[in-house]
Specification:
Order of helices and strands: HHEEEEEHHEEE
Shape: globular
Distance between the termini: 60 Å
Number of strands: 8
Helix content: 10-25%
Radius of gyration: 16 Å
Number of helices: 4
Structural class: alpha+beta
Strand content: 25-35%
DNA sequence: TTGCCGATTACCT
DNA sequence: GGTAATCGGCAAC
């Protein structure tokens, strides 16, 4: 009998992303974001910082109050899809849609600890300093070359080259606090929906007012 | 080390 | 016409 090559990465399934969004945000810490560029190149990073965006009732969320536009339509897809948008005229942010189609919520992936394909990431970033490679939402998109071309990707599909996987990393201390860069969101500005590993050097330097 | 500011454009009012 | 789920550079302390 032929030996079947076992996949190194165990892809997360739909159920994981259908959970309450805060739960998904917390549990994504320690998981791995993987992009199989081609047969030679795999880019992978440990998720070390996330933010939950709670849909209709969250003034900081793009779908607040039921807003639905061409840009945020992805939020109304089933949990497990990628939501990548263009912001500040030059940057991209990578999110993962959570919950059902009637609950337009998502988790923003804010920082990764590079695991694999580091040389390629350095080329993509034009930067040689390891700790600046993926310590911010737009930085990690640049490192992995994630653009709106990867918006609406089903991350749990069998054949998907972009997905989230389990890791066997020993758990670290999880801290939580206000989200970054949402000063316009009124009372929600202080909601503690940002999750991160307190002792990880790849967490972003963003300030949460 | 902190803090301000410009870049640059799609999207919303 | 204003602003954004950001980043990097540069000035001031």
């Amino acid at each position: 009998m032929t030996q079947v090559m076992k996949n190194k990465w165990a892809k997360l399934k739909r159920d994981f992303f259908m959970q309450p969004t805060e739960e998904v945000a917390r549990q994504l810490l320690g998981k791995v974001l993987i992009y199989k560029v081609n047969s030679n190149t795999v880019l992978a990073g440990l998720i070390v910082e996330t933010e939950a965006y709670l849909g209709l009732r969250d003034p900081a969320c793009h779908s607040y109050g039921g807003r639905k536009t061409k840009r945020n339509a992805t939020l109304y897809m089933m949990g497990g899809h990628s939501y990548i948008y263009f912001v500040y005229g030059m940057h991209y942010c990578f999110n993962i849609v959570t919950r059902s189609e009637s609950e337009p919520e998502a988790v923003l992936v804010r920082a990764l600890e590079p695991l694999q394909g580091i040389e390629t990431m350095k080329v993509n970033r034009g930067n040689t300093k390891l700790t600046s490679l993926t310590n911010g939402p737009a930085k990690l998109c640049q490192a992995l070359k994630l653009t709106t071309a990867f918006d609406k990707i089903d991350l749990v599909h069998n054949k998907s080259i972009l997905f989230i996987a389990e890791s066997h990393r020993r758990p670290s201390t999880i801290e939580r606090g206000p989200r970054i860069g949402i000063d316009y969101a009124g009372k929600a500005t202080s909601w503690p929906l940002r999750f991160f590993y307190s002792d990880n050097p790849f967490v972003s330097k963003g300030k949460s007012t």
